[in-house]
Amino acid sequence: MSSSPMAPPLDLDLRPDRPPVLHVETPGDAPSWATQYRDALHAQVTEHGALIVRGLALREPEQTGAVFQGLTSGLMTEREAFAPRETYRPGVYSSSTWPPNQPMCMHHELSYTLEVPGLMLFACLTAPESGGATAVADAEQMLQALPTALSERFEREGWLLTRSYNDEIGASLEESFGTDDRAAIEHYCHANDIEFDWQPDGSLHTRQRRSAVVRHPLTGRRCWFNQIAFLNEWTLAPEVREYLVDVYGEDGLPFNTRFGDGSPIGEDVVQVLNSTYEAHTRREPWQAGDLMLVDNIRTAHSREAYTGERRVLVAMAEPRRLADSGPTPEASR
């Protein structure tokens, strides 16, 4: 594979309130361009945590998938999805199905799995009329800004994700595990440190404990890395939470998060997490044809509420099995 040994002579626009934007002249062959400049683009992501490439004129899933492939050594198959996606080709997905008027708050993709994507790739084929940005926040800065007692507790205990799979809300068993075969699902759970219980009605309840703070595998720096706020009941719109609790009960919510010792996370804690994220958020409205690369461990991302049609494709790459994905008493030393 040929690659540029030096950063390409392109216009990198740096502003403190948004991710870096790299302006390029529309190449005749975007996948070949991506392959050629793969190393240079990765260097920018390593330096800044995220990068928008503007000018590639991405319009079709096949072209976009080829660009994604050119930028990576292979795309990951999503497992343990929390919401349905459309699959365009192996490893290339639609953004998660989520109501347009409800934001998806900051999170690190699949931070509750044992093998996490190190790199997220996004491409905007159709930009919304308003809103809808994929905003980002630096995980190192987030950790430093949180109240010390709170971050130390999460670093010591980790966090607990509870899920209740049903046929009405969220991803189905087959969408999450790639199969609806009980034996295969149980094998996956055993192999990935997930406690599980089959309910009398055939539904599945799971619990998995993960670290809230990890060291970046390349830099060694400590990062706030989790989906504690995003998957917590108090981040839901009040009317949505009320409906889900009424239908499924507090212990049967499709997903929820707790402290690592199993105790509930209060609404005040979730507000602190989300307000701290907001204070460190950088955003840039999507333009049709944009490409975005995000270091998934160093950088959290969100999806803001929007109006109009929004078509964003997503891929995950650079799988990492973090040494500290499971919290231990020594984790904070």
From TrEMBL:
GO function terms (MF aspect): dioxygenase activity
Using the record's annotation, list all stretches that form the TauD/TfdA-like domain: 35-314
Q: Which domain of life is it from?
A: Bacteria
Task: Name what cofactor the protein needs.
Answer: Fe(2+)
Instruction: Output the InterPro entries linked to this UniProt entry.
Output: AlphaKG_dependent_hydroxylases (IPR050411), TauD-like_sf (IPR042098), TauD/TfdA-like (IPR003819)
Region described as Disordered: 1-30
What is the name of this protein?
A: TauD/TfdA family dioxygenase
Does the keyword Calcium feature in the UniProt annotation?
A: no
Q: Which organism is it from?
A: Streptomyces siamensis
Parts of the chain that traverse the membrane: none
The record's keywords, sorted A to Z, are: Antibiotic biosynthesis, Dioxygenase, Iron, Oxidoreductase
